[in-house]
Amino acid sequence: MSKKLLAAAIAAALAPAAVMAEASNVTIYGRVDYGFMSRGGDNGAASQGGRTGRLNDFEDGILGTNRFGFKGTEDLGNGLKAIYEFEFGFSGDNGTSFGSTTNRHSWVGLTGAFGTALGGRVDGARYSFVGKYDPFKNQTVANAGSLFGRTSGLGQADRADNAVVYISPELAPGLKFLAAYTTSLLSEAGNNQALFTGDIETGDTPLYAIAAMYDNGPLSITLDYENLKIKRANTVTGGDLEYDLYVAGASYDFGVVKLLGYYEKTEGSNRASRGDVAGGAVTSDGDGWLIGLEAPVTANIKLKASYVQANDDRAAQSDCSKWGFGGEYAFSKRTTAYATYAKIDNDRNANCGITKNAAGAGANGGATNTNGTFTNNAYGDSGFNVGLAHTF
Fold first, then answer.
1. From 10, 109, 197, 390, which residue has the greatest number of CB atoms within 10 Å?
2. What is this structure's pTM?
3. For the packed helices 125-133 and 145-152, what is the interaxial angle rounded to 10 degrees?
4. pLDDT tens by residue, 114-159
5. What is the 3-state secondary structure (H, E, C) of 44-100?
6. Widest CA span of the chain, in angstroms?
7. DSSP-based three-state secondary structure for 317
8. Are 207 and 182 in contact (CB under 8 A)?
9. In 3-state terms, what secondary structure has residue 265?
10. Dihedral, 354, 356, 362, 363 alpha carbons, nearest 10
């Protein structure tokens, strides 16, 4: 076949796909990340639960979780657009998906002069705000969110199921507001009812969030309040669990260095502890903060550092802190080499450990699962990672 005939055949084969892509304005994007991580050490009496030795393994998704997705817009006229995004997560080293599903987020919505409204499975507000003001973006061994998730007893909800979100237009230069609500944060409403008896809402996890976001030039400020319920989680000691979460973050880019700060406070109890009925227990009472910096040394090299403090006031000697240091070398806008080191200091009764990201570090710090067996999620009080990431 001549080159002209071959070119014509390829063009004919791709023409329908090209027309469809143009009509719906589809963008395909993704990320592939692979590296090496080493963890070890046992600081704090409860930190490793008796495990010893150094854990060395090749890991993917260290600087950022592996993913690919589709997003796009359709112009509906008069300044109104339809928007959508569907993103998958995948493992680059063992062929399995991340977590229990490959769907990281998926939503559809409208955007225009009124702002943006969308619905579906969306990125978690608190998780996203930690990542916004953590110089390590809630990733690598230096991530901040895993410590906050451990000491708060809430983990880090990196995604919100069954959610609706509204983001206002700019009400002043750089100023927007966000409001979000989900009928059940962690699964479909009504799916957690035990033994198909009692109230259909038993086990549901409704949450709402309200945030003010200011991003103008070098200055960024975020204030966020969230309220989470676990419906009728314990009818013996007072019914619903309820959590209040308060978040504040800020950063300022001086050019030669960017300073970042973050603070969160979590309070949780059942209705009994709030005075509705007798008895009850406090299930979350803590706070945490970080201070960090990013310094562009050259056009290709960036250095990062952070200090994280996470406090659990439910019990004595249960606080954690972490130092993190790292660097990135950008071969291009899409390809980056990275290296990070982190060191945790646990109080006597604390069990914070090293993880490659913040997702999933809950009340057990990722140390044990429901069967009491140890997992690979959080381990050691020191660790380092190196790797290569490419985005497309």
1. 109
2. 0.84
3. 140
4. 999 999 999 988 999 999 999 999 999 999 999 998 888 888 778 8
5. CCCCCCCCCCCEEEEEECCCCCCEEEEEEEEEEECCEEEEEEEEEECCCCCCCCCCC
6. 86
7. coil
8. yes
9. strand
10. -10
